[in-house]
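User: two proteins, same treatment. go.

Assistant:
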Amino acid sequence: MPESKSKFLIPAVGAAVVVAGSIAAYTYFKGSSAGSLDALGSAKVVPSTALMATYITTDSQAWAKLQQFGTPEAQKLVAKGLEDFKKQMFSDSNVSYEKDIKPWAGSVMIAVLPPNPVKPAQLKVPSGAPNLPTNLQQEPNILIVVGIKDKLSALNFANKLKSQKGVKFQESDYQGEKIIKTTENGKPTYSAVLNNSHLILAPEKQAVEKAIDTFKGQSSFASKEGASSILNKGVDVKNSLAQIYVPDYAGMVQQLAAGSPQAKQLPPQTLTQLKQIKSVVAGIGVDDSGVRVKAIANLDPQLNKFQYQSSPGNIVGQFPTDTFALVSGNGISRSWEALVEQSKDYPEMKQALEQARGQLKIANLDLDKDIFGWMNGEFAFGAIPSNQGVLASVGFGGALVFDTSDRKTAEATLTKLDTLAKTQQINVANRNIGGKDVTEWQIPKQGALLAHGWLDQDTVFIALGGPIADAVSDRKNPSLDTSDAFKAVTGSLQKPNGGYFYLDMDKTKTVPPINSFISSNADIITILGSIRGFGITSTSPDKSTSELEMLLALKPNTAK
């Protein structure tokens, strides 16, 4: 949110709650119970036109779970950052978040409404201009719903703010409800209290009016097609901090794209692709492993052309334990076939594929058959540290490992590549590594630039750098899947799955290019020192559902 709008919360909160003031309100507040503070309750006052909504809990127990992670230095850094934020937010008042806001503010829902149409009178076009501007940047239309869990504390806070200097309040009536216009430093914001249980805040008056219309009976986000089910179910994460709801994914992208300054009408092919995803719900929570994010996409099975297949996970065992980053999956050939099929509806994509096919034909290679056709099994790409030979300057190399049922085609492709390398004056030679025959592309005085060979009857590898070929071929050291780091980052992710993205932060930050980048910033070093790694995986239990899970694995708090 722009800085000009970031401070509208405090004076607007006070102004809105003042509406329910007076002695009568005091008596009512003292004897009444709090309103519905769950996601569904908040969504009932959000207009059905909302493109998406994020529900953030203020449950102190959920947020306190974060305190079990991080080094003492990282804990102090985060605490200082939070304190600085509070001071900046309340710098122009004597408001304290802990004393004045925390006691009464319940959970928060932030909804994104469609941008308001720009009227010609707002364009301020110079006289004599031949045409109106076509690229108009429209700011997101934000509506914030704050649940009031303690009405007495809210009233006390409102009365305190009523005497603040430099803040102007102006009341107006809409549909029998009071809207407060709060002006601070020339920036107006609008707010209202609905049913003494929800505080509505927005930088635009129209957004508050639409929320009142919803409260009075117009259709709400809670009743919107596709929203009700995801609001009720949400995503199952422990100690949920936030839930994100997108009931109409294609519609959201269309409307947000239309509001961008470089807006262009989306082609029908793109809309078809977007409509594969009906709705999305995501949750962010904290458990014993770290911060976990889960997202569930509801798909249209008639439009979904991707054929999901779970990955056995055996390919990870082909990498050494010091591998610091890895991407794995299954069935590149199927994905390629789906891409080729989709390109028929995209002239630009189809042209690019034809150009790629033509360029490879010069080297006597068939893109579909020789490159992707035999990649029909599990695969992985891993980054492995090394400071030897051609890798001395970068500090790491990489290895691609493929399982295939078509060894004959794979061998023919590698032979063609070897022949091509020889025409470029590269020395192609064979070497035995750990009992395996490996072919290397050698550069004088620097060793092997690239190497390839077979780990078993069905598994081939291509290594960037001779030392990486040694690490993959000669399996004297433990494999990656047995390492404590890999288990900590991926062990709690859902299984079976379609593969992993894995990152070991401790090893990654020692790689020379990355180390030189972060070494000059002590705060970054401190934060990264609390992160163990990052893991992502996905599953698809059926053709109408796709699930994504991410884990930011954190180190336990070592403070005593």
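Protein 2:
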Amino acid sequence: MTAREAALRALVACEQQGAWSDGFLKKILRTAGLDSRDAALTTRLCFGVLQNRLLLDYYLGKLSTVKLEKMEPAVRNSLRLGAYQVLFLDRVPDHAAVSEAVDLARKGSKNPRSAGLVNGVLRSLVRQKDSLEPPEDPAVRYSHPQWLADLFTRRLGREEAAALMAANNGEPPTCAQVNTTRATVEEVTDSLRAEGVEVQPHPWLPNCLLLSHTGSLEELTAFREGLFYIQDAAAKLAVLAADPREGMDVLDACAAPGGKSFAAAIAMWGEGKVVSCDIHPHKMDLIQAGAKRLGLDCITAEVLDGRECKEEFLDGFDLVLADVPCSGLGIIRKKPDIRYKDPKPLEGLPRVQKAILDNVCRYVRPGGVLLYATCTLLERENEDVVRAFLDKHKDFTLERFQLPGDFEGAREGMVTCWPHRHGTDGFFFAKLRRMRGVYEVRPNEGMGPFALGMTQAEAEDALDKLNEEEHQAVEVWHRFGGYGSPQSFQLEYEDGKLSRIGLDRCEDLKVLYRGLDLMGTHAEDLILALAKETGYVCDCEDHELACTYEFPALGLELWRESAYHPKLLAVPEFQELIQALPENLEYEQDHGWCFAQVWVQTGSFRAQCPLEPGPAPYAHPVKPTPPEREPTAEEMIAFLHRKYGLIPPERPGRGE
């Protein structure tokens, strides 16, 4: 069997049987007896045709008197193979490409006239190839079905969607993640280069190497000795965001082939426990073999359906990784034929993803982390699934993280990696922290386990019970670097009965009113929502270091920190913090635009400290008058200085 015959068989199998090109190629290359050079050509031809199939059909359709869909699969794909070589492979002479395609059609067709048809169409293509006009439609130019091109265009715009589709037809880099428990980056680099591999450090991801001219990876000394494993930079980023640490109990709920389990175990220096689960029994051997090669004894593998509850796992893990089944439309570079799959079955995937999340979230200990990940770029499988999960599970919240490289969304807790922006697979991940406590505000009634009007003895008993329940969760939170401290409710009494209940903002607590996070929502949005409910009436008072917003109709009072009060500006450490303007605004967003305290109180308490009722701030937003001209940079700095009391940073050249 020749390289072109093997490629043709793979293309026909993909088209007729729905086979995956990479899996079928591995199977056929094992039985074809091809040397490494011909095996590489087979892969290049098969993937090249799949990457450019719609474009090839566009050109062939203009030259053939017989419609491509009317041809036998072997004839149609023989034409595509010939056209791909003529248009994309400079090292293959045109006459050889035509001759080979004609032979393939003659052998694969029942119609004796097929060889002549292929010969005529491809010779016409050779004569006209230098004058061919590329199609204007980027969906055809980059061979993406229209439904998929439309999805990308709606999200990114026409120009950037075209850049994404072009990147999807590129060749993905081979990313080697160094096993730092066994070797340094320098040691692995030296070993690989000694065997003729070209090695470059990844431009922004630590302990990652980009490889080329590897030959068979399995034969490399560094691979056999477990000094590295192959994993795309985006998948490694997801594990970095999850932040596994020594001593943790980690569950990789959809683990095969095991890359994230390996990354977590290495980040933990092998200290702790990683349970790698997958629904397919035959993949257990793959995970265990990889862990053994890398020397990661802390990894165990077991079969588990992510949608089915395992009682022993409940509240059992500090970190749960859920890289769920998805449409895979972020890895088109690696699986070029995935773009041609029927989109209809994909519509049911969010239901499966939500079911997995609903189940595995129960395995996360209070204070622990759930990392949701997919290798797709569709919002309905990514952001929409996360938002639906948060709406349903109020004890989880998005948590920010830091990453190497330039990634939007890390501050919000959700990141999408893009092939055309970052050079990675298309990949999405979100970090979700399980709160130690979630307390609902009941207007004019109470908050959490406390009710206004209960006796002091009842309130103190409730507080003692609450502290006992929280004790274990607090220990877990602090053991792995959680910030914030155990928070007690602030309780005030009048005539022996509870009249005021307060709680300070804490990173591992959430206070909700009708689904609104009272201490995690931007002040303007929160005040507007509450004002609408109470007829736009709010009592406001400026204090020295805080502002009070009181809603009498709800018995609710919110305290907002005045982050840029002159007294704070006088503190040297604070002054140092706010020197650079971008960081100033980030600090203000985090500390000044959210509420620091929530109080629920009786009407009698409010009567002791009456305020003048007035319209709620932000309740009636006024459309600003557009400026006559754009302000200069100096004017903007002066404005920020006046608004926030900032000290403008030194500008280059000043004082020279």
